[in-house]
Write a structure and sequence with these properties.
231 residues, alpha/beta, 8-stranded parallel sheet, 8 strands, binds D-xylitol-5-phosphate, binds zinc ion
Amino acid sequence: MSPSTPLGAGILLAPSILSADFARLGDAVAAAERGGADLIHVDVMDGHFVPNITIGPPVVKSLKKVATVPLDVHLMITDPDKYIGPFAEAGAAMISVHVEVLPHLHRTIQAIKALGVKAGVVLNPSTPVVDISEVASDVDFVLVMSVNPGFGGQSFIPRSESKVAEVRALLDRAGNKGLVEIDGGIDMTTVGRVVKAGARMLVAGNAIFGKPDPEKAARELKAAAMAALPK
Ligand code: DX5
Ligand code: ZN
């Protein structure tokens, strides 16, 4: 994905490998792609910002060799400024950073873009949308957390639905066609609601890799998402 490539219309399904078998990530990526994955969502956790530890740039570098779709890297770490360079170098096409840890959010967004990577900002469930109002025209996408970050397989927080609509309205007012992404508890029961609210990039971990046939699960989830798009 070049920096000028728009993130597109329609639905972008972003399976999260957090719920996959970490000893067989290549197989997980291939199955997700056969099932229609448009992106691969990579959850980076440092044990400080969130109470879990996952992966770093070397794993992203290996994923980059096997993935044919762009890597969407979600940084759940206390010091993202220090690591956007290494993750971009490793092959991230998109990097999202949490507003809760960034006093100089505008600068961080520009730094991500300067590396030729799409820049996204992430809101925790307790973070108000107003916190990104001053960067609404700068971001390439906004990620709304619909669970508290740290673990896969949690339940969708219903308030996230109206938050997606609020973020979409903010971006529209800023003339920004960037997409709203949603992450956490997305499955066959919640996917239609979030698409109707305006989400177009859909992260799903447990609903795909927690199933015996991830390829089929991805295909069915994407079909359900597409069916909920406005006609
Ligand atoms: C949560 C992560 C998510 C997670 C979603 O901290 O950011 O990407 O993998 O998992 P599910 O879809 O299982 O809620
Ligand atoms: Zn995530």
